[in-house]
Amino acid sequence: MTESGGTPMEAEFDTVARWTEEVVGRLGPEHAIPAGCRGSASPAGLDWLLRTCGVGTGTRLVDVGGGVGGPAGYAVRHAGAAPVVLDPMFGACRAASRLFGVPALAADGERLPIAAGAADAVWCLGVVCTVRDKTGLLREIRRVLPAGGPLGLLVVVGDEERPPGAPEGNSFPTRRVLREALRESGFRVRAETDVDDLPEPPPDWTARTEEFEHALREAHGEDPRFAEAEDQSQRLAALARDGHVAVRLLHAVAC
Ligand SMILES: C[S@@+](CC[C@H](N)C(=O)[O-])C[C@H]1O[C@@H](n2cnc3c(N)ncnc32)[C@H](O)[C@@H]1O
Question: Ligand 1, from 21, 62, 130, 131: best to mutate by most atoms within 8 Å of Cβ?
Fold first, then answer.
């Protein structure tokens, strides 16, 4: 618990999700995807995931820990996918459904409300480092995919599990531990890349992200939960700057 009465993860993933819905409502729908993808993949990263996972028209894409739905909204707009967003935070689910019109359900990644083998593809972006039982999460994802089904992951990998200054509630697998967890859960990695090796976002994406961040600060900058969420992201940014963590994209298939 913190000064605001919740955990820093609740501030970051629930309160900020509610604020995102409200602020995008004022700025306009063209801000929804960039605002909804803050802290996750850039357009180049999302294109990489769409391509490697073979996401196309009507693909039943389950986005585990899908947050406010930016990546799911991107998959609808750029590939015609049919995503469902699952996230434990009610504020995130409500934002995903209102901002992008996608079905969104409150659920833990370790217990997905999806029948075995019913997903065409699964994404899980920026989630692995926020759960303790990484193999449990990956096994549950494996359950909902048929053999050969594609998984797209965005994972913050670390040189140790919790480098000094790590954000609350985060633990970073090393590359070796992540590969081992995927193998044990029934996945084979087909491709991976560092997000820093992909092209930068286009200027209009960056401009909309900045406008959104400015409006968010104007509206809620005085709220202690804003400072808690900021502290979480600044801690992560500092670890990345000092080379303790790196953001990896992986494409794996269910064996
Ligand atoms: C860094 S955000 C990424 C959100 C979204 N995937 C994106 O890329 O924009 C991490 C998300 O994981 C969710 N999360 C935390 N614990 C989870 C769990 N046990 N199962 C599924 N999702 C979880 C959080 O609520 C949050 O929305």
Answer: 130
pLDDT band at 6 (very low <50, low <70, confident <90, very high): confident
Question: Cβ(37) to ligand 1 under 6 A?
Answer: yes
- Output b/e per residue, 2-13; b: 16+ Cβ within 10 A: eebebebbbbbb
Inside any domain, residue 122: yes
- Ligand 1 mean position, distance from CA 88 (Å): 8
- Alpha carbons 175 and 181: distance in angstroms, whole number: 10
Whole-model pTM above 0.85?
yes
111 within domain boundaries: yes
- Helices then strands, counting H and E runs in the chain, come out as 10, 7
Residue 48 lies in a domain: yes
